[in-house]
Structures are given as C-alpha cells and as structure tokens.
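Tokens in:
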C-alpha cells in the first residue's frame, strides 16, 4: 500500500529511513524539495485510515541542506538529524528541531567546519540518541587526513555529548 507520493514541493528523494514515535507518527527527511529545494523534515500520521503528510521544516542552505539520514526523537518530542551540506561552513551540520506554538524551530548543535579535520565533515547518515541525551553519528569525510582522498580523510564516528559541542 502506497501511503504518500512526494511531488517536489513537499519533498523529493528520500534516502533515510523512517522513525516512529509512541503515538504512531512517522518522521523522515527528504534530500531535496520543499520551499527552497534544499530538503525537508516531514511527519506522516494516520487519520481515519488515511495517511496525512505534514512538512515540519524546510531547509534553506545556511540552516543546512540535504538532510540524508534517519532522524532520532527524544522524550520531549524534539527531532535530531544531520545535513550533508549547508550550515555555516557548507560542510553539513547536526540539528535539533523543537516543536513550538508557531511550528518547529531549528537549533544548530554543530556546524562541521571543513573536510580533513579530525572531527569529520559531510555526514551522510542520521544520528543515534542514547538515554543520557548523547548523539552518535558518522561522517563521510574527516579523520586522519593522510588517508583516502587528498586532505579529506576516510570519515569518522563521533559523539556529541549532551549539552556540549565538540
């Protein structure tokens, strides 16, 4: 059974998996599409046997672009994820979307600075959130810059501790 068709305006090119909350709402991200064609975060909820799509956030470049990974949810209803590019330095970011009275607001938890740094850059996957609020993720580049592409590194596994930026 097909639940939803994306048409570009509501998102396009899904690479990540879905995340589900306790009430059965599904959450996901699209690599492209949305208002600025830089990707979206969306929810799907069932209402009277029909699935309803809601765009929660449209990325626009400086606030990240191309969210490619599976999202994580905390008990307060916040959504966590990564963007492959965009952000302050155009190497991707780790973000939190917080629900509020006027919609969802983005909190940038970390902007990746440049490929070739030990901490990594260009995350292609999502995040894993542990019970203490720590985020774990992988990056496509970074690490030891003597490995792989010239000055790029082969990638990293990193941790963002709760309340702390690297």
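Residues out:
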């Amino acid at each position: 059974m097909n639940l939803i068709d994306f048409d570009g305006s509501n998102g396009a090119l899904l690479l990540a998996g879905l995340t589900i909350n306790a009430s059965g709402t599904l959450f996901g991200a699209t690599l492209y599409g949305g208002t600025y064609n830089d990707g979206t975060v969306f929810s799907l909820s069932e209402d009277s046997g029909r699935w309803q799509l809601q765009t929660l956030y449209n990325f626009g470049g400086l606030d990240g672009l191309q969210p490619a990974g599976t999202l994580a949810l905390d008990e307060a209803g916040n959504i966590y994820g990564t963007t492959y590019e965009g952000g302050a330095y155009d190497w991707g970011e780790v973000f939190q979307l917080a629900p509020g009275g006027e919609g969802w607001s983005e909190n940038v938890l970390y902007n990746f600075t440049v490929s070739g740094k030990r901490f990594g850059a260009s995350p292609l996957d999502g995040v894993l959130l542990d019970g203490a609020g720590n985020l774990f993720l992988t990056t496509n580049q970074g690490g030891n810059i003597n490995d792989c592409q010239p000055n790029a590194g082969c990638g990293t596994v990193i941790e963002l501790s709760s309340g702390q930026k690297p």
